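Hi R.,

Here's the chain you asked about this morning:
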Amino acid sequence: MSKHLSFIQPLLKPWQTLTALMVVGVIVLGSGTGKSIHTSLFYMQGAIAAPRSSAIAQRITPSDVWQQVYQQLPDFPCENKYISKENGKVAENNTLVNRLIRYHIYTKGRAPIYRLDWKLTLADYLGVNEIMYDNSYPGNDTLRENPLEGDRKAITRLTRSQRDALVQVLVNIFNPTSQNPLPPSPNNPPSPTTSTPPQPPQRGGAELLK
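And here is the predicted structure, written out as tokens:
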């Protein structure tokens, strides 16, 4: 291919030469030898388009986060009495929060910085969202007993306020800026409230709230 293009290189500018090479590359993709090139381009594109949440997950590991969660929520269930397959001892660091975080980020590929994504994960545990599979659940390959069933029961026993507190703590850890709301602007002070006479309800107002 380089022989056929060598005669046009002196006549073309660098960007024109690059364009010609790209055209030839597209032709090569049509042949069997182009499959590997296409695969490489596909993975390059995927790497460039990787979500910001993946970078955050790489900077903050679950082993760091679960300890911070228990520091802020000391009464949250640990569920860490399972036996390790490797050494036959209790895997004390393999906690419920540790597994929940790994399931959220690595199994489901959800962003760790949004409340809604964490609520979807908790909905999985409560059995009202996506199906959870034993063979892909964290701990299945390292613990003698799959912890999925016990973890689901532990999440089910939590109150709504406990689940909301867990979500807020996780978001604050992965996205610290979320716990620092912007103060009201001094240039726009809140307008004083004035009493107004009651107005009759407008027709169709209930429809607007649906």
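One quick note: The chain has a mean pLDDT of 74.

Cheers,
M.
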